[in-house]
């Protein structure tokens, strides 16, 4: 499910409904006073919708459909025809794309082909899509790129620009790469992995990306350390201000450590934290939020946040209350 | 999680409790003072039947719930607007079919 709303109150919501014959994506537009009726964007097997909206109320929905990426533009009260952004022949991962909209109604879609991060820009003035362009390309067959995310830096001068982050991995490293022209104060949070046995590795993949909000860039990574032979797990959320500069990453969550002899490395580790999310305002204040498993069994899921203000993190605080019934679960989405 | 203004942010999450009060909850983080946030408030109806991850943008919060209390009924999307100027939530609106 995805939602985007602009300053004038107009909004677009897209969601996936699962039917026996096919998964379908629906979209609803809110003009500031009334909701449209649900609009089905595709008859095919459509999933993973993402949305964005401009200052003037133009909107875009992007979704995956049978290995392809499609887009549909809302302008002047009606939706355009479906437009194929990228095809299966390019090695698309169906969840590997992101969309953002400039204030004037231009839009940008980024996706990964596994070896390249690609972008495509929609020109709202002449209602055309530019040809696909490469943002980044790996240099060897052992490298991969994935999870691209795009956000619009509205404060950039003389005009808003797009920022991109994505994951870059090879046999012996994983890193977050960042690309922009002249962004001012982006923030990136991530999950950092090291010393991991392979059976836990795939659990640690980031699974979702955040919605753009002013000066913001985000990718969801956090640290999970597995330290054999002691079977000790340490989990911590990290953040870095201005990742293009020299600022060292700073832990924003409590470090949680457990030494559990009963721990099975083939199962999901706990205590642990889930991928953190972050948002930033124009004053460079930021809030990081994450979900954390607590206790020594039975475990409880709780939502934590930390605020970056006056050039420092103010300290993690738990939002949710301890449930004495020990059946408490919480989850969040930005 | 979403900034409403430069001083306030809205965080929404799903809470699932077998014996408690499951539903979608919201809290307001306030930057104007020190590090503060309001007590979580349930924003979905009673009872909330379907719990997934909610989404929020500039005060508009959307989530999935079931149409009725009868099992096997289709789930659909509901939404609610938060007016930060008046610190007030709108009525719950059904967005999906």
Q: How would you describe what is shown here?
A:
- The complex is a heterodimer of chains A (334) and B (97).
- By secondary structure, chain A is mainly β.
- Chain A has two domains: 1-183, 6 Propeller (Neuraminidase); 185-334, no CATH class.
- Helix content of chain A is 1%, strand content 48%.
- In chain A, the strands form seven sheets. In chain A, strands 5, 6, 7, 8 and 9 form a five-stranded antiparallel beta sheet that branches. In chain A, strands 10, 11, 12, 13 and 14 form a five-stranded antiparallel beta sheet that branches.
- Chain B is mainly β.
- Chain B has one domain (2-94).
- Chain B has no helices and ten strands.
- In chain B, strands 1, 2, 3, 4 and 5 form a five-stranded antiparallel beta sheet that branches.
- In chain B, strand 6 (55-57) and strand 7 (60-66) form a beta hairpin.
- The mean pLDDT of chain B is 83.
- At the A-B interface, strand 1, strand 2, strand 3, strand 25 and strand 27 of A face strand 1, strand 2, strand 6 and strand 7 of B.
- Strand 30 (328-332) of chain A pairs antiparallel with strand 2 of chain B.
Brief write-up:
The complex is a heterodimer of chains A (334) and B (97). Chain A is built from 1 helix and 30 strands.
What is the secondary structure topology, with strand pairs?
The complex is a heterodimer of chains A (334) and B (97).
Chain A: E1 2-5, E2 11-18, E3 23-30, E4 39-40, E5 46-53, E6 59-65, E7 68-75, E8 78-79, E9 83-86, E10 97-101, E11 107-112, E12 116-123, E13 128-129, E14 133-137, E15 144-153, E16 161-169, E17 174-179, E18 187-190, E19 193-194, H1 198-201, E20 223-227, E21 232-236, E22 238-241, E23 250-251, E24 256-259, E25 277-280, E26 286-294, E27 300-309, E28 312-313, E29 317-318, E30 328-332
Parallel strand pairs in A: 19-20
Antiparallel strand pairs in A: 1-2, 2-3, 3-4, 5-6, 6-7, 7-8, 7-9, 10-11, 11-12, 12-13, 12-14, 15-16, 16-17, 18-22, 20-21, 21-24, 22-23, 25-26, 26-27, 27-28, 27-29
Chain B: E1 2-3, E2 8-17, E3 23-30, E4 36-37, E5 41-42, E6 55-57, E7 60-66, E8 75-83, E9 88-89, E10 93-94
Antiparallel strand pairs in B: 1-2, 2-3, 3-4, 3-5, 6-7, 7-8, 8-9, 8-10
